Amino acid sequence: MLILSCASKLQLLEKLLKRNLPQTVAVYGAVVNINRGNPVGHEVIVDSWPDCKAVLTRPRTEADADNKDLYKNIYAAFYWDLDVYRRLLLDTDAVNWKQNFRLYGNQNGIYDVSKDAAATKKIHLTVTPHFTYLNPNPDKMPQRQLDPSFTISTLKSSHVDILNETWPHGGNEQSRRFLDNMVKCFPSICILDSNGHPISWNIMDPLGAQIHGYTLPSHRRRGYLAIVMRALSMKSHVAGCPVYGHTALNNVQTQNLLDYMGSQRLSELCHICIHSST
After folding, report:
1. Euclidean distance between CA atoms 66 and 215, whole angstroms
2. What gap in Å lies between CA 273 and CA 125, rounded to an integer?
3. What is the share, in percent, of the chain residues with pLDDT greater than 70?
4. Whole-structure pTM value
5. What is the largest CA-CA distance in the chain?
């Protein structure tokens, strides 16, 4: 196990992961953000270098880390060799098993290893499969017209309360801190009404994924989410980030929108593995 901290090696890893898209997308997105300033303090673990067979991204170990914070404790994984990945998780210190954390990966073996780890470490595991949609050509996304009294802007900390109230995974103080950090650290797009209030928005997370795309109910069916999605996608693409996101298997409305925007559904599901010690 190695912590890959050398800037030149991280750049080489980014290129390697890019060549192996789309399965690498979650790890690739994390490494891109690490190489663009690392605003949330993540790090990269590999089994060896340069001939690595497994890659894991994780939060840096901090003395004041909150081991209960599922929002902050985000991991992403990719492997070329499943047995190497299994050993990396089970036989090294790559994972802090005292933490509650979410692990993302678009390979079935990541789910299988998480099940083995939960049984071996005697911890609780909850797994939620999602579809992953990747858009390789965001410049080809359809363009929609915006009401002239509205404006395109970016989210601010003053908007976090409404983000937290409307996010299906929000509603608590940990989620509020997470969303505030995302707004401060990563690209976001919103539409402001004539009074300067956000009515539709989309933001990026530490893995480069678009999350919490939302339009207030009173403003729906006017194409606003398509507008913010395209604007954020273009901003992400220019910064070198992958343009992608996850959606629940039963969220047909969002799936239809992503199809309309030209995104491609990956063949393997993203398994969001929530490991918790309590």
Report:
1. 32
2. 7
3. 99
4. 0.95
5. 59
